[in-house]
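Recall the central idea of this unit: under ordinary conditions, the amino acid sequence of a chain determines the structure it adopts. In this exercise we apply that idea directly, starting from the sequence alone.
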Amino acid sequence: MQIINFRQLATRSALLLSLGLAVGACDKAVNVQPSNSIGAETGYSTKEDAAAGLLGCYDALQNVDYDGVGFPSTVDLLAREIREVGTYNTTFGLINQNQTLPDNVQVGNTWNAIYTAINRTNYLLQQSDKITDPAFPKLDTQAQARALRAYSYMNLLALWGGSTQGYGYTDGLGVPLRLTPTTSIGSETAPVARSSEAEVATAIREDLDFAIANLTDGDGTTSLVTKSAALALRARFELRMRNYADALAFAKQVPPIAGFATAAATGVTSPDAIWQLEFSNTDQNLFAFYWYPSPGGRNEFDPGTGFAAAHPAGDRRLPVNVATSPTGTTLKYTRTATRDDPFNIVRYAEVVLTLAETAAQTGDLTTAATQLDIIRTRAGLAPTTATTAADLITDILLQRRLEFAYEGNYWFDLRRTNTVQSTLGATAPAAANAWNQPFRNLFPIPLREVNITNGLVAQNPQY
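Accordingly, the structure predicted from this sequence is:
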């Protein structure tokens, strides 16, 4: 089964979720019923309603301020894997300098886009409980929705939460946790304070556990959340939280992809995709538009300075990641005419490198080297010569950086390993060395979110 053109199929599911999560707002502007959607009070009554609602949940991820370009590009700009060379100087440009302020428009847009995605899943979960048709695949529908919700909370926590040294520490900050839908102005839109990181983590784990228990890998589709995708997300989350034994256990449950070891190394088709968002000519993203010049693009982004040099000699990923070394563009996103490049959310390469890293962290150096060499061999590199856990992990982290270029991962690797300052602070331009300010490891909460809740949604420290 392939999902195409989400936005055409998801009109009914849109509801009045344009409220997003500008929580507590009394502005007249948010009290407007969208003309191209039905009222939330109408609800879902059939399995067809729920199916359209589920498509709407996936559609929310495609928003240009979410996985349609904004979220992964923001985190790669922060990590200096992308260099902003266009004219968005007050948004992407400031993010690229790590000078982001709470009133940055992109900050607010991405926050709202992610909470809109969460709100759609909340509404689907609420409404699907009322459908009694025995032909309705309720558990599968709700499992997909809960995996989508977990994914969005993982992203919120990763960018705005945790602590300056990483994730999973006792003082970790969370985000507002909303598990019921916002459908009308009133009690549902009352301000909600930030939960702790631990509380958000509990909700993420509960959602992913439900998804793992109720999903299958079905017909092998990559456009829907499957059991393998949910397992890989759980492994990602536990790795991020430094729970290495748990991350290893979940990664081991993901079935290998046939032919992975001999497939093209990070080819443009990403043959190792476990879950990717699909776009179409009428349901577009802006990746190629931002990467390429006219005609068809605006060349807002180039590879980060020094990124080409990070590739070892002979690395097959270099001409994909940096198409015209040492600057140029990328071959990961190229479709400037149709703007329908898929976006990879979970790839099997990530599972392999999670197996390698968690094995090294738990003392199994043989497994760590074996899994690491799968990636190295695909990339055209010789087997690793590392013999210690520390050296293996250093190489594993490099392979993650090169393997997942422009897929929105490297910043979170720096954060979870507490190496933002030692990696970026040491090399940033002296005139803008904000990477030596640890408070900036957490992104600022949007100013409007703080203001309209009268400070109930507390700003991250020092912003």
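The chain has a mean pLDDT of 90.
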